[in-house]
Amino acid sequence: MEDEEGFREFVRARLPRLSRTAYLLAGAHAQAEDLLQATLIKAALHWPRISRVGDPEAYVRKVLYHEHARSWRRRRFVE
To answer: What pTM does this model have?
Structure first.
């Protein structure tokens, strides 16, 4: 339960910065919201491990970037 509260605190504190990063990657608000949501879901599932690393924000930003690259590759192959 304490991991869940730690994740909520992390999101409350870092959401504006992560939102800006997602927007810079996606280029549009709707896509940025989807990207950030997918990233935060993955982070929530692995939060106990992520919270033990030295800088969880850097780790989540890395996941954000990889999630964006994955969605970009999927779109590219579909076209």
So the answer is: 0.84
